[in-house]
Amino acid sequence: MEIQHEVSGGGNLRLHVREWGAPSGIPVVFIHGWSSSHLAWRYQYESFLADEFRLVAMDLRGHGMSDAPLEADHYTDAQLWADDIAAIMEALHLDRPVLVGWSYGGFIIGDYVRAYGSSGISGVNYVGAGVKLTESIMRTLYGPGLLSHVEAATQPDLPTNIEAIRQFIRALVASPMTEVDFEYALAYNIVVPPEVRGAMLMREIDSDDILRHLQVPVLVSQGRLDQHALPAMAEHILGVCPTAEASWYEAAAHMPFLEDPERFNTELAEFARAIRG
C-alpha cells in the first residue's frame, strides 16, 4: 500500500513524501540525488523490501512534487536541508530510521547529523554519495559524468537543458538503461528548474568532521565505474569514518540500486536487520 504525505519542511516549504511497506517495520528513508525524484527508488519500493520494512521516499525541496521556489537561499542553507529530514521523521513518527543517501543525498545526511546529531537514526547507507563539495577537490572526487554537464544543465535555455540532462542521465549507468528507465529518469530530471540545480551546487560542504565522529554503522555502496562521484569519494569516506564498511559494485556506475537492484536490496535489508537487531 502506498501512502502520500505533505510535510512542512525547513522554512515551512512543502515537501512531498511517500511511504510503502510494513507500518511496524524498520523505517528506511531514501534521499535521492541532484535533479532527481523519489521515483529513482522504484526498484526498492516495488521490491521484497516492502514486505518487511517501512520504506519512505521524499522529493527533495525543488524537486518532483515538492515546492520549488527559484530563489537560491532556499537551497544554500544547510539548516533548511537538515530541518527537512527532521520534519519528515517527526511527521511520520519514524523511530530511528536508516538513512539511505544517494549522491547529493550524502550531503543532506551530513546536514542533518550536524544539526541534530545521530542519536535519532540507526545507520547510514551512502550510495555513490558526496560528502565534500569544495573547489579544490572537484576534479579529484567528481568525474566527467557530472562536471561535463553541470554548466549546461543549469542554463535556462530549454533545448540546452534537455540535451545536458539526456547526457547526464546516460552517464549515470555503466550499461544503457532500459527504455522505460530512461524515460522515467528524463521526465523526473527535466521538471527540476535549472535555477534549483545551480543553487544546490553553490554550497561549500565538508562533512569530514561529521564522519570522524559518527557513531552509527555506515554502509558505503559504490560503483567502481562511477563517473559522477568517483570511487575516490567512497575511499575518502572509508578513510575518515571509523564505522564505515564498503560494498563495491565492480560493474556498476552511479546507480547500483538500479543497475543491480537484487544485490542492493539484499544488502540494504541485511544492513538494516543487523543494526536493529
Automatic annotation (TrEMBL):
Entry annotated with the keyword Membrane: no
Gene3D superfamilies: alpha/beta hydrolase
GO molecular function per UniProt: hydrolase activity
InterPro entries, sorted: AB_hydrolase_1 (IPR000073), AB_hydrolase_fold (IPR029058), AB_hydrolase_sf (IPR050266), Epox_hydrolase-like (IPR000639)
Domain AB hydrolase-1 as annotated: residue spans: 28-265
Assigned keywords, A-Z: Hydrolase
Statement: the UniProt record of this protein carries the keyword Phosphoprotein: no
Entry-linked PANTHER family: AB HYDROLASE SUPERFAMILY PROTEIN YCLE (PTHR43798:SF31), MONOACYLGLYCEROL LIPASE (PTHR43798)
Protein name: Alpha/beta fold hydrolase
Source organism of this protein record: Halomonas salifodinae
Upper lineage: Bacteria, Pseudomonadati, Pseudomonadota, Gammaproteobacteria, Oceanospirillales
